[in-house]
Fold this protein.
Amino acid sequence: MSSPTLSIDLTAIAANWRALDALSTCETGAVIKADAYGLGVARVAPALAEAGARTFFVHAAEEGMTLRRVLGPGPVINVFSGHMPGDADMIREAGLVPMINSVDQLLIHVESLPGHPFGLQLDSGMNRLGMEPAEWAAVRDIALAQNPRLIMSHLACADEPENPINAMQLQSFTEMTAGLNVPRSMAATGGTILGPDFHFDMTRPGVGLYGGLPFVDATPVVTLDLPVVQVRDVAPGETVGYGMTFTAPAPMRVATVSGGYADGLIRAMGNVATLTHDGHKLPLVGRVSMDMLTVDVTALDVVPEHLQLMGQHQSIDTVADFAGTIGYEILTALGARYDRVYLK
């Protein structure tokens, strides 16, 4: 077959959740937004629930509705983007808990769904989502009177343990929530690893569940095998691919493999990345095109049916480095054309 094979190890995802849960000094949730970081919420969510996760986080109400259909009643599903106009029916029907980000959202929620559970998001210094200290001070008593289920914030630099911004945000969040009898959450994957000071009542790992940094001890989750379509001999001085960006310095064998930017393999990897076979590093030569990559396989005595881009020898973050990006983008960009195989 000509479709690349994306293998997703559900056992590894569960193991990563348990490992991060063991690092936590409180309840451990699971961030499962963006279709479980591109890996398929319909299969990933039940694996996490079976591992012990009881609280989940998604980006939008639509994702929450999908997740509720997968998990059924029981687990808590929190919505980072809060209560947006038009969300009331989905929030009510799916039993979602919106993380309220502003006074306007608080008014929308209280007026459209009085008594329905909600949480609050505070901006401790990231300047992205949540109420800033002055806004929070103005609405705090009103918001608390509505009995929020959770108060959360988000760290901007948790993947940089020595960055002083972490301590500044921790102080800000602590000051804004001091003395409140409401569960609190600040730590995603990076914050979980930073230690107990950042854990409060709930950690909520995301990318670490799927094998990504900064969780360096994560069990690899994703393997991506690309089928070899054709192998050719290239003479010295001949070029390979669009734009003739690679010129053969010597006689070489080049394999054309199925997979390209239509599959989420970022174009910036051209002439930079490597694929592997049995531990051999095989350079990508020429540009990444829509459906094809060209790989120098001169070092191999026998060219196999598949070459591997991600797996035992190259993590999602290794591949991200090839493209000058981060593992999150690699995962969430993985396209719909893969033959997806789930391992249990």
